[in-house]
Amino acid sequence: MLYPNVSIESIGNLGERVVAEALLRQCPPQWRIIYSKFWLWRKTRYNASRYREGEIDFVVIIPDKGLVCIEVKSAKEYRRAADGVWQRFDESESRWIPYRKSPWEQAVSNKHALVSILSERLGRNRLPCGYCAAVVFPRCLQHGQLPAGEDDPTLVIDANGLDSLADTLQESLDGWWEGPGDTSQVEAVMLPGEAAFCESLAVDVDRRNRKLVKLTSQQARILSGLRLNKAVQILGGAGTGKTVLAVELAKRAVAQGQRVLFLCYSRKLASWVGDSTGLRSFVASNFHRLAYQYAKSANLLWPQSPSQEFWSSEVSTVLLEAVDLLGRNAKFDTVIVDEAQDFLSEWLIPIRELWNEEGQFILFGDENQAVFGGEIIGHPEIVRYVLQDNCRNTREIARACSRVLLDANVAVDSGSMDSLPVGEAPRWINGGDLSRRRTVTVSQVEEWLAAGLRRSQIAVLSPWTDGNCLGIQAEDMVIGGIPFTRNLEVWRGSSACLFETIKGFKGLEADAVVVTDVPAADDTPGFTLQDAYVGFSRAKQELVAIASSNEAARQLASWFSPESC
After folding, report:
1. Domains of the chain (ranges plus CATH)?
2. Which range has the worst mean pLDDT, 81-95, 274-288, 384-398?
3. What is the pLDDT of residue 389?
4. Which of 114, 118, 286, 524 has the fewest CB atoms found within 10 Å of its own CB?
5. Using an 8 Å Cβ cutoff, are 391 and 417 in contact?
6. 61, 187 in Cβ contact below 8 A?
7. Is-cis flag, bond preceding 4, omega within 30?
8. What is the pLDDT of residue 198?
9. How far apart are CA 531 and CA 407, in angstroms?
10. How many beta carbons lie within 10 A of that of residue 154, not counting itself?
11. What CA–CA distance (Å, rounded) separates 560 from 546?
């Protein structure tokens, strides 16, 4: 068989076409005939920094023996002049053209270069099989005597020798290598399996991110306008850049010498913001942790095992008392509350007391999520702004999220998606039982890593802490050869992909997200349309959802289908 498997007629050089025909006609089927073998290598013997190109017209691999490198001289006439220089007659120019090297030197030089490359690739000092070279003149007949040593019939083959070409190659190799040789390794590196240059997901993600990762012109106007107002409420759906804007406002306030408090509901979001900003005079905390720290500083009693009632209502009273006892030094010039729809109304009372009114009091919230049962905290002095432009998700992911909102009877502004990069449509998979969901989830992560994404770009989210398909108990685990972590710092350093619950990942984002263990929303205790909306909207570029039931799969199909409105 000829490699590459091209038609004989496609070989433009007439002499090489004649040799290819002879080889295919005579060689046993198990022989490998490689046509026009090219390589690039460093000539390490004299200059290790210099690249050199090389090419052999044919390499014939004789199984269990070795390989023969064939140099084909395709012109009709060649001669060795009286001065010993070899020449070729060029019919188009009607003149003799000299060679810098004789045909035999070319063949032998290329043979040694190829053998050197193969030996290096195999990690050996020499090949485990035989090798030799031959020169074929398919359109010429030899006349006259060649110099001694250059006239061996296994080295020089003219038109008369074409009919016995395969036998001559076998005889030549037998003269160089006694007994059998291992050609399997050579064949493996010279004729590897299929190869392809596939689409680079990493490049596409970076390109779309350059369009997404920026403050919109609307946000820039708000930043300017916010300076005129003491208390501001900013509402916007997932992906409208609320956290980005909150951090930017915090940076500006710190730069003006203010003490700034950033509050949110999620402990991990607070940790992420605190670690990523690196600001002094800046505190990032979730509400309950701040209340605990203030209570301890004020020497107030804190229950050993707080009840749900304490976390919901009584904690506000404790924090308010702590702020009163600690005085003005416990207060902040600017207070920023992110994901405010997750806060109970009474929590605002002590939070308001943490503000000394030197700077600003700013609330960020998602009015879409407020519809699901929370409420945006009201305040008589607050001026309201609404963010409309999505600057996180691709258009296809934003549309999938809007379909979830439509199922929850929430109005959607589809025009705000027009400026987004289109991106890939989100995909859903009916994962089935726990074991299969685990396999499918890990396979999807493997696919993204193979496409060039970094571990710090990939997150796996599940509704459940217990009973999720990855079964992560420790903070760090390796599953299917892929490291996963629940530590944001480890994830940020790209040492592992992230695994987190949907609620735990609220306020954060990743380029590629698998939302796994998805049940039917609002039919399963603990998983609502709000959870689906939050989980899906965390994905910036790539979103795959894995259903845990047929009903969930049907729901995902309706949200992710291109035909859905």
Report:
1. 2-190 (3.40.1350), 215-390 (3.40.50.300), 415-560 (3.40.50.300)
2. 384-398
3. 72
4. 524
5. no
6. yes
7. yes
8. 66
9. 13
10. 19
11. 12
Give the residue from 547, 562, 405 showing the smallest Cα distance to 462.
547
C-beta of residue 396 within 8 angstroms of C-beta of residue 424: yes
Query: What does the block give as tokens for 197?
Result: 């240059």
Looking at residue 133, its pLDDT comes to: 94
Tokens describing residue 22: 């002879």
The DSSP string of 108-145 is HHHHHHHHHHHHHHHT-SS-SSEEEEEEE-TT----SP
The amino acid sitting at 52 is: R
**What pLDDT is stored for residue 500 in this prediction?**
94
Which of 112, 133, 116, 113 minimizes the C-alpha distance to 125?
116
Q: What is the DSSP string of 403-455?
A: HHHHHTT----GGGGTTS---PPPEEEE--SHHHHHHHHHHHHHHHHHTT--G
In the chain, the amino acid numbered 175 is G
Helix (H, G, I), strand (E, B) or coil at 34: strand
Rounded CA separation 111/438 (Å): 51
Query: Does the structure show a pLDDT above 90 at 153?
Result: no
Q: What is the CA radius of gyration of the chain?
A: 36
Q: Residue 104 corresponds to which tokens in the numbers above?
A: 């035999």
**Cα 455 to Cα 445: distance, rounded to the nearest angstrom:** 9
- Per DSSP, helices labelled H in 197-314 are 201-212, 217-226, 242-255, 267-277, 287-297, 308-309
Which residues contact residue 147 at a Cβ distance below 8 angstroms, ignoring those fewer than 6 apart? 80
Q: What is the SS3 assignment for 471-528?
A: CCCCCEEEECCEEEECCHHHHHCCCCEEEEECCCCCCCCEEEEEEEEECCCCCECCEC
CA distance 18 to 321: 98
HSE at residue 470, side-chain half, CA atoms within 13 A, is 36
